[in-house]
Amino acid sequence: QHPQVPSALLRQSQGQFQELVLTEDEKKLLAKEGVSLPTQLPLTKYEERVLKKIRRKIRNKQSAQESRKKKKEYIDGLESRMSACTAQNQELQRKVLHLEKQNSSLLEQLKKLQALVVQSSNKAAQTGTCIAV
């Protein structure tokens, strides 16, 4: 087996030479770069370098795609969490406003009741003496 080329991409042909099998992506990139490789091994050092470079480009492209996909999923998750937190925050603000109004109302009632108690205790003290038998 040839050391530079994975065995999955080699095929035994007539028992002597191994056939170089390229993926569609490898063929496209080779054509784009204007390079053609022989179908039989061994490859020259230059051809090996070109093939290695092409395969590295393909791996980098796949890695970049995966990174973009993960980043998008992460951002989507953050946006979802932000929406949920915003909704919860608005609900809590409504509750705070309601409770502040309720608190204010209760304080007013308390002041009125305290005033009534003071007023009634003053009247009781003025009305007269209590006789105990």
Short account of what is shown:
The protein is mainly alpha-helical and 133 residues long. The protein is built from two helices and two strands.
Regarding quaternary structure, what we see is single chain
- In order across it, which strands form the biggest sheet? 1-2
Distance linking N and C termini: 124 Å
Strand content: 5-15%
Shape: rod-shaped
Radius of gyration: 43 Å
State mean pLDDT (0 to 100 scale). Answer: 86
Structural class: mainly alpha
The count of β-strands is 2
The biggest sheet, with number of strands, parallel, antiparallel or mixed sense and barrel status, is: 2 strands, antiparallel
Give the % helix. 55-70%
Q: Count of helical segments?
A: 2
Order of helices and strands: EEHH
Residue windows where pLDDT falls under 50 for at least 5 positions: none
Main features:
single chain; 133 residues; mainly alpha; 2 helices; 2 strands
